[in-house]
Amino acid sequence: SSLLRASEKTASSRTASSDDGSQDIMIEEKRRCPDGDGHTIHQYLRGRMLGKGGFAKVYLCTAMDTGKQYAVKVVAKSNLVKARARQKLQTEIKIHRTLKHRHICQYKHYFEDRSNCYILLELCHNQSLNEMIKRRKRLTEPEAAYFLNHLLDSVKFMHDNSVIHRDLKLGNLFLDRDMELKVGDFGLATRVEDGDEKRKTICGTPNYIAPEIIQGDKSKRGHSFEVDVWSIGVILYTMLVGKPPYEAKDVKATYQRILANEYSFPGALELSERVKDLIRCILQSDPKDRPSLETIMAHPFLNDSPLPQYLPSNLLHRVPVWQ
Ligand code: ADP
């Protein structure tokens, strides 16, 4: 039985049993013809592993018929035994495939075989902002403004399309060859059908999670688009400081710091008043007090400070000298 009704395709991978990621293997997609019962075979060469997620492995992948390169997200069906896990993947695909934007990692195609589900994605050559920050320790303000600009563009587009991402963090902000930011991983995203509907499930990653999500079930307040705005504040802080604002020794302590909204700017860094003002303005405990995306876009940090139009990829390793 097909996992997704949307893609009535089956395929078989030649070396499914030796799928340890250490060798190049050929993946075969058996694509059913739209009319009649014939099918065509499409081959993909799976190359090196690009990264690992909670339940997926992501590899470099080349379509043999076109020579085009992609990232392929491979989820073993053995990880989808529970209905909840299947539901999660289905939701991810259902939402991701509808979103097409310059700053969203483009969903390309879905297929499955006996052992795995495959999601073909736009290839992002330069990993994620997480790796960049680890190498660089922290970014300069013009760089942070550049990435924030891309991120806001992308989240504005999602929200305009009733999608809340709910897991915005450095590790889900990928960089392509031209250092364009691409938001990925829609595994926790949700589409708000009714404008007033509030989501009540716990989701997100501890360091970036908004206070109303932690309180969630207790207060029955639910949460909405403002959770993404909160994460944007955490991301901006983390790009500039090098570690998340509410980081603590364990998840419980992090939650406590978030609930108390306890963070500070390291004095030694000499951050501009402009950017500190923007971060303070975003990281407000009450979601109603947080600015709209438009208000953030209009903030002096993005309008009265230098904003690079593009970044060279040597900045992945080297601190820029702004002239
Ligand atoms: P999960 O949903 O299981 O957390 P992710 O979507 O976060 O999986 O992907 C896991 C890792 O794979 C990422 O952290 C990243 O390193 C890599 N990755 C994911 N998508 C791409 C892509 N489009 N291009 C390049 N690398 C990617």
TrEMBL record:
Transmembrane segments: none annotated. ATP binds at K77. Residues 44-302 form the Protein kinase domain. Keywords: ATP-binding, Kinase, Nucleotide-binding, Repeat, Serine/threonine-protein kinase, Transferase. GO terms for cellular component: nucleus. Coiled coil: none annotated. GO terms for molecular function: ATP binding; protein serine/threonine kinase activity. Belongs to the protein kinase superfamily. Ser/Thr protein kinase family. CDC5/Polo subfamily. This is Serine/threonine-protein kinase PLK. It comes from Fistulifera solaris (Oleaginous diatom).
